[in-house]
């Protein structure tokens, strides 16, 4: 539990922990049932729905599934990580093995240098030195990725390229720890897409490109500028007061500063925790507040929200992390969260 919480909030959280909702985790179980039932209902009724609508629903459910995977790796709805992993193992969102995502995301939470290239595995920034070395085309792409439109269109491609490069570099270093996860994920995806083609007539390539890529793009809406560059670590994480649709799709992870302070609090409690201490949280994160994703769209549809080169990373910071090699080569690409 975060150190800044006052006694009243500590007592409130303790009361919540002993409530029937927290003990049973029924909201999370309901989301699990809705996602799986919805996905297989679309699969078995795709011909009736029509291809465009079916693929759109697959993309929406895939994005929701990635939000669920985020909840699973944080210890919900059960206290047993292996059971949670089984609940998030199917490749409904196509791209990434659950275990690979879990390990990278936990490194993100453990990093004391949020947004730092090579230090935070979910950073959207590059170092000034890497920026200077980058080809002008790559600079343009990195700049475009920091616009709202670019994040949706280019963000998934950056994530896929970086993840593939990481996997190959690990193998080249004879680090095979992720190989079983990738093999299992590939086998499950092959089985799922073949079954889907037989049941609904959706070709594997079409499902992967027209449902998997948009699902990743939808998820990138939430992560748009959820961490900013700031000298104070507590001022780097956003509070996004999004509408109910986005809150449900992202399982309240739009209250990102609350999640980072209290990562064990389940998704259905994040909003109430925030509302009860709204003033305190906004003071704590330096007023880093946005009133919904529409505000990001209006302000940064084609304008970069920040320069791609991180202004605060220097050799002194890098030197304290020499034992942990960068996970994405010279250009740190944000993955999935």
User: What's the end-to-end separation, in Å?
Assistant: 22 Å
The biggest sheet, with number of strands, parallel, antiparallel or mixed sense and barrel status, is: 2 strands, parallel
Domain count: 1
In terms of per-residue confidence, which ranges show pLDDT below 50 for 5 or more consecutive residues?
A: 314-337
Number of strands: 2
Strand order of the largest sheet: 1-2
Order of helices and strands: HHHHHHHHHHHHEHHHHEHH
Helix content: 55-70%
How would you summarize this macromolecular structure in one to three sentences?
Helices cover 61% and strands 1% of the residues. It has helices spanning 7-17, 20-24, 26-44, 46-49, 51-73, 81-87, 98-110, 128-133, 136-145, 148-172, 179-200, 204-223, 244-249, 256-261, 267-276, 278-284, 293-300, 315-319, and strands at residues 239-240, 289-290.
Structure description:
With 337 residues, this protein is mainly alpha-helical. The chain has one domain. It contains 18 helices and 2 strands. A two-stranded parallel ribbon has the order 1-2. Helix 3 (26-44) packs antiparallel against helix 5 (51-73) and helix 10 crosses helix 12 (204-223). 39% of the residues are buried. Residues 314-337 have low confidence and may be disordered.
Detail the topology: elements first, then pairings.
Blueprint: H1 7-17, H2 20-24, H3 26-44, H4 46-49, H5 51-73, H6 81-87, H7 98-110, H8 128-133, H9 136-145, H10 148-172, H11 179-200, H12 204-223, E1 239-240, H13 244-249, H14 256-261, H15 267-276, H16 278-284, E2 289-290, H17 293-300, H18 315-319
């Amino acid at each position: 539990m975060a150190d800044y919480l006052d006694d009243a909030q500590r007592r409130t959280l303790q009361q919540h922990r002993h409530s029937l909702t927290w003990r049973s985790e029924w909201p999370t179980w309901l989301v699990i049932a809705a996602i799986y039932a919805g996905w297989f209902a679309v699969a078995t009724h795709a011909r009736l729905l029509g291809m465009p609508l079916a693929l759109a629903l697959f993309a929406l459910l895939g994005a929701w599934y990635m939000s669920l995977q985020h909840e699973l790796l944080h210890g919900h709805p059960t206290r047993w990580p292996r059971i949670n992993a089984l609940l998030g193992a199917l490749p409904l969102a196509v791209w990434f093995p659950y275990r690979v995502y879990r390990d990278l995301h936990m490194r993100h939470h453990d990093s004391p240098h949020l947004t730092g290239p090579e230090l935070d595995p979910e950073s959207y920034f590059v170092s000034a030195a890497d920026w200077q070395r980058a080809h002008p085309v790559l600079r343009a792409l990195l700049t475009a990725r920091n616009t709202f439109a670019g994040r949706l269109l280019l963000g998934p491609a950056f994530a896929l390229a970086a993840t593939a490069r990481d996997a190959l570099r690990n193998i080249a270093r004879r680090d095979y720890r992720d190989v079983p996860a990738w093999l299992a994920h590939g086998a499950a995806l092959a089985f799922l897409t073949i079954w889907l083609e037989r049941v609904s007539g959706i070709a594997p390539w079409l499902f992967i490109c027209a449902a998997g890529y948009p699902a990743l793009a939808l998820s990138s809406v939430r992560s748009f500028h959820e961490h900013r560059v700031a000298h104070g670590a507590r001022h780097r994480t956003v509070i996004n007061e999004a509408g109910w649709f986005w809150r449900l799709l992202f399982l309240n992870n739009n209250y990102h500063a609350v999640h980072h302070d209290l990562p064990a609090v389940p998704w259905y409690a994040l909003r109430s925790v925030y509302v009860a201490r709204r003033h305190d949280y906004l003071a704590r994160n330096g007023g880093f507040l946005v009133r919904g994703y529409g505000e990001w769209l209006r302000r940064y549809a084609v304008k970069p929200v920040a320069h791609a080169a991180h202004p605060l990373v220097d050799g002194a910071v890098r030197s304290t992390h020499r034992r942990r090699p960068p996970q994405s080569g010279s250009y740190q690409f944000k993955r999935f969260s």
